[in-house]
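Weekly modeling sync, notes
Attendees: S.R. (lead), two postdocs, one rotation student

Agenda item 3: backlog of single-chain predictions. S.R. asked that every request posted to the team notebook include the full sequence so nobody has to chase files. The rotation student volunteered to paste the first one in as an example of the format we agreed on. Action items at the bottom.

Example entry:
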Amino acid sequence: MTLTAKPELIPVDSKYVRVPSFDSSYTLRYGREDGVHVTFESTVDPGGSIPAWVMNYGITGMPVKT
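Predicted structure, as returned to the notebook:
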């Protein structure tokens, strides 16, 4: 499954920072003993500077919670 940002679908709102570019994909493969191996890959352009804690969450927390 592939996900792509569509920022043009919602009007610009000065209260929010828009993420201009986001692409990600999930790849599911059969694993050992009826398991499934999931690979999550993404590329994000946050549109400016972001705090380190946000970046760290995106790298470590988001793939697991997504």
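Discussion: group reviewed the output briefly. Residues 52-60 form the longest helix (9 residues).
Action items: rotation student to repeat for the remaining queue; S.R. to check formatting next week.
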